[in-house]
Amino acid sequence: MTKSGTNTWHGSASEYYRTKGFEANDYFNNFATPVVGRQNLVRNQFGASFGGPIVKDKFFFFFDYNARRNATSNEVTQTVPTTTFASGQITYGIPAAEHRH
After folding, report:
1. Residue 19's domain spans which residues?
2. Number of structural domains, the chain?
């Protein structure tokens, strides 16, 4: 909630900064084998507000700004097709060379 207009200038600023050093590891990561490390995370949350009179006792202004910046990195594992699959040779089950009657 903000106050109604006033004839004096008012303002505020805030910042919340969090890095990997202040973050606990995930509960399930601790019990994984091998133990999975914490995710890289840098979070910067900041804001400011400013207000004052435009016309004394009549008209006032107020400005407020809040923002958050996240920088994360995640490990990505991808499956790549084999050379035979890429060339169009697709086999299912037992290969034809091994399937003799």
Report:
1. 1-73
2. 1
